[in-house]
Structures are given as C-alpha cells and as structure tokens.
Amino acid sequence: MTTLSIDAGRLLGRLHELGKIGRDGDGRLVRLAGSDADKAGRDALVAWIRAAGLEVAIDRIGNIFGIWGTADNADEASILLGSHIDTVIDAGIYDGCYGVLSGLEVIQTLKSAGFVPARPIAVAAFTNEEGVRYAPDMMGSLVHAGGLPVEEALATLGTDGTVLGAELERIGYAGSEEPGFLRPHAYVELHIEQGPVLEREGVPIGAVENLQGISWQRVTIEGEANHAGTTPMSMRRDAGHAAARVVTFLRDRARNANTPTVATVGCMSFEPNAINVIPSRATFTVDLRDPDEGRLQAEEAALAAYLAELAATEEVTISVERLARFEPVTFDRRIVELVEEAARRRGLASKRMTSGAGHDAQMIARIAPAAMIFVPSIGGISHNPRERTPDADLVAGANILLDVVSRLAAQ
Amino acid sequence: MTTLSIDAGRLLGRLHELGKIGRDGDGRLVRLAGSDADKAGRDALVAWIRAAGLEVAIDRIGNIFGIWGTADNADEASILLGSHIDTVIDAGIYDGCYGVLSGLEVIQTLKSAGFVPARPIAVAAFTNEEGVRYAPDMMGSLVHAGGLPVEEALATLGTDGTVLGAELERIGYAGSEEPGFLRPHAYVELHIEQGPVLEREGVPIGAVENLQGISWQRVTIEGEANHAGTTPMSMRRDAGHAAARVVTFLRDRARNANTPTVATVGCMSFEPNAINVIPSRATFTVDLRDPDEGRLQAEEAALAAYLAELAATEEVTISVERLARFEPVTFDRRIVELVEEAARRRGLASKRMTSGAGHDAQMIARIAPAAMIFVPSIGGISHNPRERTPDADLVAGANILLDVVSRLAAQ
C-alpha cells in the first residue's frame, strides 16, 4: 500500500499557471474549444506532459493523451485519468483543469517513486467538454467512447460560424490517432463539485456513485394579444400568465418532493413584450435532472400532463421541443469503494454523492468502469471567476486519486 | 341643426391607406413613436390635412394639428378633436387612427358644406400615445395639457436606447410651436371601444362618461445565478421563479375579485437567460387599472405587501420603479349628453360607459371639458391585427362626432 503523496507545490503551481493562459482584454478567462486561447493552454499542458517523460498522443478530435507505459505492460488496457481544459466564458481556473493536472501529477509521482504499474496509466484532456462554442458538450469523450462519429464531430458548426475540424487544424491539434485508440481498463475523473453540498456538510471528499440524467425542453405557449385595459380578466388568453403557472408548478413539485430532482426555467421571453398588451406568446426552457431514469421520465410525464391541463383551462396552445436528453449514469461500485477506502486510510471524511453536472466520465462510462472524485466548491460557485476550492482540499483530492490509481494499476 | 353626413368612402379609404403604412418584413403593422414608420404615417396625415385646406401646425413634442379657423373666430378658443396615429407592435388599423381621420373628415365635411363655426375647429394627432417605445404613454397630450415639461419628455430614453427628442428631429417632426399653444374650448375623441361590451350588447354608440385610473410599475427581482444541475431546490435564490409568483398572484387576485380591476404583466425578461443557469435577475412590468381611485390604491398596496413578503420568503431583493400613474377621469356631462342626444336623433342606441383604456382625452380633460365616443370592437379585440369594427359602425360614429362638433362650434 503506497504512502506516497503528490507534490502539492507542483500541482498548485501548474493550476495557477494554466489559469493565467487565455485571459481576454477584460482579464476574463475564456478558453473556448479550438480557439487561440485553447491552443495556448494545450501547448502548456503538452510541455508539462513531455517534461514528465510521458508519451504524447493526439487523436483526430484533438483529445490529448499523456501515456506512461512500459515494455512489460504494453499489451494491457490502460488506467485512464482525465477531464478537460477548455472553459466557459469568464470561467474559474478549477473546472476541468484540476482533473487533468491532478492526473498528470499522480502519474509523475508514481513514476518518479519507482512504482511498477501492471498496466499503462494515461491522462486525457478531452476536447470541447463545455460545448460553449460547439454543441454538443462533452464532445471529445463522446467521440472517444464511440457515441459520435468523428467526421460528424469535426464538421460541427460553431456559434461563431467556424467549423471545429478547421479550427483544430488551424491551432495544430487535429491529431492522427483514431478516436478510441486507447482502450481504458478503468477511468477516474477528479473534479470540483460545482455545488454546495460538500462545503456545507464539511466533507472534503465526494465519492461520486452516479450522475444525473438531463432533460432539456423548450416550451412555447400561444395565447391571444389583447388590450391590457379593456379586456376583462375572465376573457383573457394570457400566454405569459400560463408560462408563469408552469414555472411555479415545476418549482413547487421539485421543492416539495423528497427527491434529488431539480427543475429550472432559465430562459423566458414574452411577445409582443409590451407593457399594455396581454402576451400572445411565451417561450421558455425547462431543465429537469434526476439520477433515476424512471423518476426523470415521471417528471417529464408530469410536466406534459400539466401542460395539457393548462392548455385546456387557459385556452392556450402549447408546443414542446426536446433540446437534449441524457440518461442518468451509474458509476462503477468497486472504484467508488476504492475512493471511500482511500479517504478512510488518509483520515478524511467522504460522502457518496450524485453529480448534478455533466462530465466526460459519463461518456467514458459507456466503454469502461468509471467513477469520479469530488472536492468542495466554496459557496457551490462554478462557471464564474469566483469559483474556488481551498488548496488543502485540492491536495487531498489529488492524493485520493493517487491512492485509487495505485490500487487500480497494481493488478 | 345640421343634417349633414360625412363622406363614408373618403373616411374608410384613408383609414385603410394609413393602415398599409408601416408594415414590417412580416407584414405586421408597427408604427412606434419617432420611428421611420411613424414618419411615413405622419407624412400621409399632413398631406390629407393640407389637401383639406387646413392650416398645419406642429409643436415641439411632435403633436400635429390641422386647424380650420376664420378671420371672424380667430380669437376664440378651439373645438379640438383628435387621437393618435402611433401604434403598438403588430397592431390593428383602427386604434387612434379612426379618431384622427374622423376628426379631419368632420372638419372637411363642415367646411365644404359652408358651415360657419363660431370658433376654430382643429384636429390633433398626439405623439406617442401607446408608450411602447417611450414611457409614459399619452405623452403628447400630457405635454399639451401641461402635465409634463416638454424638455423632460424630449429627453425620454427609449426601450431601444434612443432619445425621443433626437428621433423627432431625425424624422422631421420636432416642431416649433410651444406645447399648449392651441387653447381648447372643448375636446371630443372618437375611438373604438377596444373591449367587448358594445358588441355583446348590440349597442352602436358608447357615450363615455369616465375612464379607468392606470398604474404602471417596473419590478426588478435580484436573486443569485447558479448551476441548474448542482444547486438543490432548497438552496436556490431564483429570481425567475419569484417573478412567476408575482404574475400568478396578480392574476388570481384580479380574477377572483368581483371588481372591474384588471392586472397585466406584459413585459418579462430573465438574466443571464441561459438554459442551465438559475436566473439571477428578472425584470417585468405591472399594469393595474380601475375606475375607482381608492380601489386602485388598494391594489397597489396589495402588490407592495406581496413583494415584501416574497423578498423575505425567497431571499431575493426586489425594487419597484413607477413608470406611470393616472387617476381615474370623469368626463364633461354636457358633452356626454350631446353624444346621447345625437345618437337619439339618428335613431341609434347608445350606452354610458367607462373607458378601460387610457386615451389622450384624459389628458386634455385637465384643461378643457372633454368626452369620448366609442364604437364597437368585434370580439373586443384590440392591439392585434384582428382588431375590427364594421364599416357601418365606423360611419355612424363619425356622424355622431359631426353632430356633436356642429353643436359645440355653433356658439
């Protein structure tokens, strides 16, 4: 059993260095997939991988791999660690980068300690996890898992009119390896929680046992525009009011249910959007998440039933468009138990939890046993420059990853 | 007593011609105050006024006047007719335009019939009655009545960031007359009901004896943006959900009260307006109307109390900005009786009623005896392309206006 620990200074130094790369004119961190800023971040990562003496491999979708193999274990499937280094607009420095740099740190620590792995250990930085510039998100890991043909992914048109394949060529990261070339024996992703639970409960380590399913829908309600002063309340077909009913319905249902279900209406617009005109149309989005597929389907059905009832009582027309749908993912019980055991051995409290956000791990879980390790996010803040995790928690999380990998790579 | 009648073909022809002006790419009628479309409508009106041989005068807020005066009555206060020709977004062709064109039609009819008026007769098209682009609405008539300093009105910032004064300059309708230069002896405004009452009761003429009070407010709710997947329902400060609560509160209260109170939320916007982010800010408008000032104040107080309660329970910050506030208006009994008498003489049923909409007449009522004449709106539909009044009713209403004006201008 290893008593090794990672080099805290090296890990935190790289994290802050990478966080300086890709700042815009206003000092905001913006490393969108395929951009010049992304190239600068990738170049730094590749230099660190090389300096650690690992083999660098890049596949056709631009996923970067740092591989530590030996002559003895060359034929074995790899222990794969990883996450992503692309960011949202005005991002924090931890999301994704922490997992990639910790993976590299863990391999470098084992390597220099003379650890003898039974199989190769590799770290991956997957392309376009955030999906801000190119949809869908988690694209690089989805392609690696065979869930999206690489040609289709490369042809993706960006929000700015660019094509991902051309941008990867331009920045020099359209690699030659076929996606999926690296066969994972197991996958472990270390990540900040991006939620408030661990901090609130004072638990440093989250053993992530599953990941919420996501249902995204756009709802359009059509009523009748009419004069706000002369139309009696009883004669109105108010699309805006009907939309408000849906928002309160979703909130009350999720709030009162004793389940992890979360429901969010993030986008809303009224037409004609005039102060003295009853809205003729309201358009809004519904984001439903639940770790249980049956319950997620039940929530979708409850919404559909409510919309049908509302259409009748409010005399409005309602149409629904599905924008995205991912089933919940259950992670590998054995790896989750290794995370709990490692925390115990280091005297750290841990908690089994559900990931509320999407991660590359859910894609790799399609082809290999996978799990995640979470560390606390102060105030649950993420996708925001105020995203932060205390250094001690960052170091503890990386050491738990070290312990889990040394166990997985021992046989 | 005149037995004259207006030229139905001329009136209806101009009404349809004006209704063709200001159509957008989708064929929607959009003549917002100060826009290029507004300019096109104004140009057509001014040409018709000139063709009728009337004097054209434009004041600093852009109100257009067509004045028929004689050497003998030059010192007398005028009989003023009028309304507006600006529209909402995706409007019908009758709202406002019917009153302005009927006023012109009446003057033209009397003039060519050799009628000798004891005082000047003028028709006015008041600027920005709808208030869609610039608040408050009924702005031109408010300025004419001295209720708003012209400099303040000209400095109004539009929803699109434009300034009204600059837009009036740009379209060539920043006139030189001081607002209020034309002193009304009496004011009569002919308008479509914009409500369902006259049609439902089969009465062609409404003798409008009073007008609802109007309260416009903009409410801004500040919560906290956060990740839609990782933030438990119990830890959310969702500004969008709080806004939805206000919408349903207002609707339920007005719907269940046995009063003429109407409440409308016409504008709504969320920030950051992203599908997977809990709204940090929601901004919306509240339009409250009631013919009784005491009841209107009670409704405003009830909203304020609910907002205070909501701020506490939802942990959000709520600020309210007053956009406009008009007390209910009582019109001139003598003019209302002249309308009823004229209807009797023409064998038309009439009904005393309350205006649910705001009209320029309520502003001019501050400085002169004023009243309104309503004609039926099919289905009560207004502020909508399906707004319609049968031609026979349009012609009948204009003839009632003709009779009332000939009586008022006789002494």
Provide a brief overview of the structure:
Chains A, B: Pfam families: M20_dimer, Peptidase_M20. The structure is a homodimer of 411-residue chains. Chain A is of the alpha+beta class and 411 residues long.
Notes on the protein architecture:
The structure is a homodimer of 411-residue chains. Chain A has 411 residues and is an alpha+beta fold. Chain A has 2 domains: 8-211 and 329-409, Zn peptidases (Aminopeptidase); 213-326, 2-Layer Sandwich (Alpha-Beta Plaits). The first copy, chain A, contains 12 helices and 16 strands. Chain A has helices spanning 8-20, 36-51, 97-112, 139-144, 150-154, 164-171, 197-201, 239-256, 293-313, 333-345, 360-364, 391-408; strands at residues 55-58, 64-68, 78-83, 121-125, 184-192, 205-211, 213-222, 226-227, 262-264, 268-271, 277-278, 281-290, 317-326, 329-330, 350-355, 370-375. In chain A, strands 1, 2, 3, 4, 5, 6, 14, 15 and 16 form a 9-stranded mixed beta sheet that branches. In chain A, strands 7, 9, 10, 12 and 13 form a 5-stranded antiparallel beta sheet that branches. Chain A has a two-stranded antiparallel ribbon with strand order 8-11. In chain A, helix 3 (97-112) links the parallel strand 3 and strand 4 (121-125). In chain A, helix 3 packs across helix 12, helix 8 runs antiparallel to helix 9 (293-313) and helix 10 (333-345) packs across helix 12. The first copy, chain A, is elongated, with a radius of gyration of 23 Å. Chains A and B meet through strand 8, helix 8, strand 9, strand 10 and strand 11 of A and strand 8, helix 8, strand 9, strand 10 and strand 11 of B.
